[in-house]
Amino acid sequence: WVSKHIKKPIRSTVTCVDWHPNNILLAAGSSDFKARVFSAYVKEVESKPSATAWGAKMPFQNLMAEFSNGGGGWVHSVCFSPSGDKLAWVGHDSSVSVADAANGSRLSVVKGNFLPFMGLTWVTENSMVAVGYDCNPKLFTQDNGGNVTFITDLDIPQQKEQMQMRYNNRQKMNTVKVLYFVGYQFSWVRQTLKFN
Q1: Which of 111, 66, 95, 81 is nearest to 18 (CA)?
Q2: Are 31 and 57 contacting, i.e. CB atoms less than 8 angstroms apart?
Q3: Sign of the four-CA dihedral 47, 15, 110, 104
């Protein structure tokens, strides 16, 4: 195990990191609104890595790519896709960004009327789930043209509706029980006092 520092060009606080599937590249998001991909190859410890979509020359701390976070906002989470060809990140400005190294580092950004996102993970090569302050996971996809699109909230509202229906049904049953009890009492009073 070897510990080394990547010093350049980071000049702000690193807020998140993620390892590439090859365990050589490292993505870092920071408070300067940037997402970066570095080489973490240590030649004394590891065998020479094969070329990736991010590049072939990988000396230690080589900056492979650098991306700005759209309109601004700290980068809260970075994540490589399962193939490692794409890097996605979320920012405090409620944006989801995807850089595709296999397509010339094409950058796609989507913003919505969401609360800020704090985490992101890929579920397939073209879809990802983002989570944040609204406590409702959101599904995003990237089409073949590179466009990132919000698909749906993943919280299941039917459960809330079912719970409300159960509550309403209980209230109705309690009302019926009370009416039955009142009716029974009235019947008992009528029989006791001999009202016909």
Answers
A1: 81
A2: no
A3: negative
Side chain identity at residue 37, one-letter code? V
Helix, strand, coil: what percent of the chain each, to 5? 20, 35, 45
| CA–CA distances in Å: residue 173 to residues 151, 159, 163, 186 | 40, 21, 15, 20
- In tens, the pLDDT along 176-195 reads 554 455 455 545 444 545 54
Ramachandran assignment for 71, one of left (phi > 0), alpha (psi -120 to 50 degrees), beta (any other): alpha
What global pTM score does this model have?
A: 0.76
What is the Cα–Cα distance from 56 to 48, expressed in whole angstroms?
10
Amino acid at 106: R
Token code pair at residue 116: 């800020």
Q: Distances in Å between the alpha carbon of 19 and those of 48, 66, 93, 171?
A: 17, 16, 24, 54
Instruction: Render pLDDT for 68-119 as a digit per residue (tens, 0 to 9).
Output: 876 678 999 999 999 999 999 999 999 999 999 998 889 999 988 889 999 9
Taking CA atoms, 152 is separated from 3, 38, 138, 141, 147, in Å, by: 42, 33, 6, 10, 16
Q: Nearest to residue 26, comparing CAs of 9, 15, 39? A: 39
Structure-token pair, residue 96:
């989801």
Contact 91, 98 (CB under 8 A): no
Strand order across the beta sheet in which 138-142 lies? 117-122, 127-132, 138-142, 148-153
